[in-house]
Hints:
The complex is a heterodimer of chains A (577) and B (108). Chain A is rod-shaped and about 195 Å long. Chain A contains 15 helices and 25 strands. The longest helix of chain A has 91 residues, at 486-576. Chain A has 577 residues and is of the alpha/beta class. Chain A is 41% helix and 24% strand. A nine-stranded mixed β-sheet of chain A has the order 5-4-7-8-3-9-10-11-12, with helices on both faces. In chain A, strands 17-16-18-19-15-20-21-22-23 form a nine-stranded mixed β-sheet, sandwiched between helices. In chain A, strands 1-2 form a two-stranded antiparallel sheet. Chain B starts with 17 loop residues before the first strand and ends with a helix. Helices cover 34% and strands 22% of the residues of chain B. In chain B, strands 2-1-3-4 form a four-stranded mixed β-sheet. Chain B has four helices and four strands. The chains are: A alpha/beta (577), B alpha+beta (108). Chain A binds chain B through residues 102, 104-107, 110-122, 124-125, 127-129, 146, 149-150, and chain B through 23, 25, 28, 30, 34, 37, 57-58, 61-62, 64-65, 68-74, 83-92, 95-96, 98-99. Strand 6 (111-113) of chain A pairs parallel with strand 4 of chain B, so a sheet runs across the interface.
Amino acid sequence: MARKSKSEAVLPVLQKVPTSIRGLDEITGGGLPKGRPTLFYGSAGSGKTLMSIEFLVRGATEFNEPGVFMSFEETEKELTTNVGSLGFNLKSLIDSRKLLIDHVAIERSEIEETGEYDLEGLFVRLNSAIDSIKAKRVVLDTIEVLYAGLSNTGIIRAELRRLFTWLKTKGVTTIVTGERGGETMLTRHGLEEYVSDCVIFLDNRITQELSTRRLRIVKYRGSAHSTNEFPFLIDEMGLSVLPVTMVKLDYPVSEGRVPSGIPRLDSMLDGRGYIEGSAILVSGMVGTGKTSLAASLVDAACRRGQRCLYFAFEESEGQIVRNMRSVGIDLEPWIKKGLLRFHATRVSEQGLEKHLLIIQQECNKYQPSIVIVDALTDFITLGAVNEVRQMVLRIVDFFKMRQITALFTSMSARAELEETGVGLSSAFDTWIHMVNVQGNQERNRTMVIVKSRGMAHSNQVREFVLTDNGIELADIYVSPAGAFMGSARLAQIASDEAADVVRKEGLSARERQLVEKRRALKARIAAMEAEFEAEAKESEVVIAEERARETVLTAGQKAMGNHRGRERRVQKGKQGK
Amino acid sequence: MNKVTGPKYGNAKQAEEWKLRLFVTDWAPRCIVAYRNLTRICQENIENRCNIEVVDILERPEAAREQQIVAVPTLLKLSPEPRRVLVGDFSNTERVLKGLDVGRWTKG
């Protein structure tokens, strides 16, 4: 025990103050350095003020740490109005003495500098503000305005240095915001000279006409931190930083199964359907039936009473409902029951990060068991392939963390398997590929399970038939003449059946012939037997006659023999004696 | 911006009194220097026709907030109009006189 405390004394750990800004604590490893100033810098409109005010609001509402906001640009009223759109009620916080806003206005045109001065006025105001509400958090936004209001930069510089030292001794966690500087300096007036503990850069970049806010930790003294750029968002819930690369592969796994709504497909998938909480990719070209496959999963889930969330990026809710009705899947009752919810937007309405956030928010709000993203490929237009890939990975991981079974449709321009899924196939557990096969003046839908982790799945290509009663999977008809599907399959089956009839008839004719022949043979045998019988009888008669004659003869001979024999016996007797 | 209600330039009517408010932090050395400089300038240039109110913002920090005091010492010229803010220790007499509009109100 004593040893442990000794080692703790040897290695003091930098204490951090959680910001509670979604994602920021994750990438800073716990928040901002406690009792020290942090610099947020970036160009105009990069979200510095909002981020710093959220720091105060979260501190006041979640950690009961009052905060002072010293604004050099906006008045209290302006600020209150501006952040009202983020859902922050500054007025109630001010009334409950959790927040104090001091607007510092310096009008250079009114000021005559007559000699040496210091910024003790600022110190006094800040000090009294901190003390009056026992503030733990302070924001100075944007202190560089002093340079515009006062001409003696030497004094300002010296006073700022003194201010930051004083803030440290005061023990408040401070955020200082600054404008982005030129080539040599991070900020316009070199604030980074004084604030050396933690520097965070905010950026608002426009790529392909969509603006993306980004955040990067430039430095964080005494703490391990992520050096990557992270996109962040400002919406009605405040800020959220999305740690794209902070994806951990440690989500829970399930053994449960989710029937696909198509019995035949279930039987192909080990007989039980998709794995619960897995990510399913349905790829294929236009019109291969991807949406129908998704809709049948939704339909089946709603039948079981599970909640589904459908993110549609190509069609509106009404369109999907109507179109699915035409293949015998009626989604409308599920919408009315509240089991199915659509979220239909055009992808181009928001940037990638915003979409990701919306998906997360909707899932948090609605708590679905099954989510459909239709179609994933629409995101490709929103950014570089790498960004899209990261974002898709993030979505997939998010669903897996939540044990949500997610089905993504993906359009592939080409039929090649490798072209589908934004090169992301490894993120998905089950991959169903749909191909339209053209031949015999018609197109036929086929599907095959490319992979399905964790189960024995069928490797057969199935014909995917959209009927009025839903989806049916048909075996592809394989005959010695080749593989057939669609009407060719039906034709081939018919012609094969006809040939079969002919063949069967031929066979029975042969059989009849054989019977006939056998009968003929038997008749002949009978005739021959009869003939033989006749002959035999004749012969018997002859034989009998002959016998009779023979008997007579032998009788004569006997008589003669007897006669002779007597003589011979006499002779024998004579000889014997 | 309030319209200046004073004599037109060239009108030799003199102002009655300068109403000034000096913000200091206790009796910090710079503030003492400033006070001395200010009273000297007033004596020499406007014949003491000035009323200097001294506010210690350490005692009344809310006053600093209300009057937007950042630098210390700061002198507010409340009257005659227009309102001006003078910061510094008043070691530059010329600038103090300019800031107090002395020339305009005393000379023709």
